[in-house]
Amino acid sequence: MASTEDDRQVRISKIAGRYLVFDIDDVTYIRRQHGICAVFTGTMPQNPTQNVFLGLPLELYAEDAKMLLDRKVAYIADDPLEHLTRLKSMDDETRKSYLQSIKTQRRTAQLVIDEAKAQSQARHKDKRKPKQPQPPVVVPTELPPASVDDAAAVEQEGGEEFLFESSSNKPVKTAPAPPQKPPVKEQLPAITPTTSNAMISTGTSNPDVENHTALPLYSYLNERGYFITPGLRFGGDFSVYPGDPFRYHAHYMANSYGWDEKIPMLDLVTSGRLGTAVKKSFLMGGQKPATDDSEAGELRAFCIEWAGM
Amino acid sequence: MSVDQHLQALTKVVVNNLENQHDWTQVKIHTQDNLPRPLLYGLPPKRLYVHPDEQIEIIKAEKELNERIPQEPELEWVLPLHLAEKWSISDFAAVFDAITAIPPGGESVNANEDAQWQLWRGPKRGKRILLATVQDDSTVTYYWMHNGLVKPRQN
Question: Can you list the domains of chain A with their CATH numbers?
Answer without folding.
Answer: 1-78 (3.40.1170), 90-199 (no CATH), 213-309 (3.40.1350.10)
